[in-house]
Amino acid sequence: MPTLRFHAIKESLSNKPVLVEENERRSKLFGQNVFNENTMRQYLTKDAFMGVMNAVKFGKKIDRSLADQVSSSMKDWALSKGVTHYTHWFQPLTGTTAEKHDAFFETVGDGIAIEKFGGDQLVQQEPDASSFPHGGIRNTFEARGYTAWDPTSPAFVYGTTLCIPTIFVAYTGEALDYKTPLLRALQAVDAAATEVCKYFDKNVKKVTSSLGWEQEYFLIDKALATSRPDITLTGRTLLGHSSAKGQQLDDHYFGSIPTRAFNFMRELETECVLLGIPVKTRHNEVAPNQFELAPIFEEANLAVDHNSLLMDVMGRIASKHNLKVLLHEKPFAGINGSGKHNNWSLSTDTGVNLLAPGKTPMSNLQFLTFFINTIKAVHEHEELLRASIASASNDHRLGANEAPPAIISVFIGQQLTKVLEELEGVTKGKLSPEEKTELKLNVVGKIPDVLLDNTDRNRTSPFAFTGNKFEFRAVGSLANCGNPMTILNTIVAKQLQDFKVEVDKLIDKKDLKKDEAIFNVLREYIKSTKSILFEGNGYGKEWEVEAKKRGLSNNKTTPEALKAKISDNTIKLFEEMNVMSSIETKARYEIEMEAYIMHIQIEGRVLGDIARNHIVPTAVKYQNVLIENVKGLKEIFDKKFTTVSKEQINLIEEISSHIEGINSNVTKMINERKKANTLEDVEKKALAYCNDVKPLFDDIRYHCDKLELLVDDEIWPLTKYRELLFTR
Ligand code: ADP
Ligand code: MG
């Protein structure tokens, strides 16, 4: 009987590209399925429109009667697009998006039915919270949770459903999702940054944080993916010998996009554009069948929603094209994994990017202020920033000699390094008029307004300044950006707040002029944050040694990294910045640790099953063929038998030793799992899974992969790397 693998290969070869028509300009399609400002102008009364805009721009409350008006118009708009259902769309801590659809349809007696959608349904819903991760919050009070409309992210139509972006909180008010703390962090950074901006421009009333993510992913044939139980259940290959050709030739990166992938991208992009996701860039990545998609950056809350939505839409559209998207950070051993660079900056309501150098010395001082404060924030909270991107799947990149290391450092490039060196020499206290002029003309004034082309690109840095933004590169491809964005914006908010206090103190107590005070504080920051700046090779062993000397953390695994999320400092920080209560912070830690345990547990089970129930029987089957062969040789050759059967006998022995290797290691792994499962304490349990269970994966895999090289290709049950990676 042919294996599942051969069925899958046959099916994959018969797949024809799905043709995609594109008749309309994208600029015309953009946002057509979004209840955005433009649509609202058409559908809402003037009062309702102003009400929503005030909520969006200034966080004003939307009252009942207004909500009724908005919901009714939203319904009319949705019905005009053939929509039948609505859902509150939210991002629970599972990492995916959640929705529960309700029909607009309602009966009103006497066999009459109408389409109804009231303000109540728009503003608040009550999904059962008990099956979502809650980290113990639910147990303390009651199971109920509710979703509440987030007017800052516009409603959209996907398929035949009206989706309303919402926050998800427990009945007692604690956040149960990624969005709630993010919104609070964005508020915190707005408040703190706006205050600091006032040193430079009194007209600034609001600062927004922007995010431009770059999503990497693998795209493989669906039939082939489905033939692999590990990909189906864990999103990655747990075994598989590397293909003779991988990425050595660098012939995939920026190469011409294969037709099937291209058609998928076109359809995906059209859907994205309709949904208001401003997708812009697409290209091949380094590894075979690896690609990247990036939009134009947006306000961070919207960008996070759009990334979550994108990940969902990608899966659905891929399926239509008989493809499967792998968002896992490391689907294949031996070739590059996938990340999600988070490009981040702050900008004012007066249209200034605070992380872009300006044209005048004053605007450059403003730039330096935000630039140096960001460095300082990362310096103070590097361990927490590392924790913000910790997950079982991202551990395969961070700390595993791939992509950015687990050590957080900041790369700023030669030019800015020089500027900081000069600023470090600024006199303490009052500055002489000469020094001021010198600073204005030759230091601050000399920062070119376009740094973009001058910042050297260091691909190994986890947090790099790239001309007009910082690029947080260590985020995982599978991650919800809400988590790192909450933490980054919170630490910057805290830092800016502290900065303001220090500067004001110098102005009041030491009678310094505003810019003197700023120079004084920045000088001290430059001195005290040097250990976080690193321009060298982040992959090198030398860096690990050097980083240790500098006192930087190097938490290579998730259980180690996550500890920073519940340190006293972190709890205090989140409380002080009104981002999370101590209950929320602790709950999140529990949830993330549990998720880690669960992932490793599932991987262990799947690997054990494949190794024992797929690989070992296949190896035995092939070994029996060899044994039969040897028996036959003996009959025919008699005396010369040992010479002619030598290789077969070696093979038989070799296969036996690998079978033994698999069985003993699977047994060991099962025992370690059992031991780990008896541990009550979540930290101890996660560490046991990390240090005792997971290392056995490599041993099991080693023997399986060796067998792949020995056993007859025709009976090998698992689709091989070369088939997964080179079928296009
Ligand atoms: P790459 O890193 O691939 O070389 P770029 O450095 O040009 O590409 O940056 C790509 C991403 O950076 C895009 O998603 C873009 O929208 C985003 N980006 C550009 N400017 C900003 C900004 N001011 N704030 C946030 N993101 C930005
Ligand atoms: Mg980038």
From TrEMBL:
Gene3D superfamilies tied to this protein: 1.20.120.1560, Glutamine synthetase/guanido kinase, catalytic domain (3.30.590.10)
Classification via SUPFAM superfamilies: Glutamine synthetase/guanido kinase
Entry-linked PROSITE patterns: GLNA_ATP, GS_BETA_GRASP, GS_CATALYTIC
A GO molecular function held by the record: glutamine synthetase activity
Signal peptide (UniProt feature, chain positions): none
Limits of the GS catalytic domain: 178-615
GO BP term, example: glutamine biosynthetic process
Domain of life, per lineage: Bacteria
Xref: InterPro entries: Gln-synt_C, Gln_synt_N, Gln_synth/guanido_kin_cat_dom, Gln_synth_cat_dom, Gln_synth_gly_rich_site, GS_Type-3, GSIII_N
Record Pfam families: Gln-synt_C (PF00120), Gln-synt_C-ter (PF18318), GSIII_N (PF12437)
Domain called GS beta-grasp: residue spans: 84-173
TM ranges: none
Database matches in PANTHER family: GLUTAMINE SYNTHETASE, TYPE-3 GLUTAMINE SYNTHETASE
Similarity comment: Belongs to the glutamine synthetase family.
Stated name of the protein: Glutamine synthetase III
Organism: Aestuariibaculum marinum
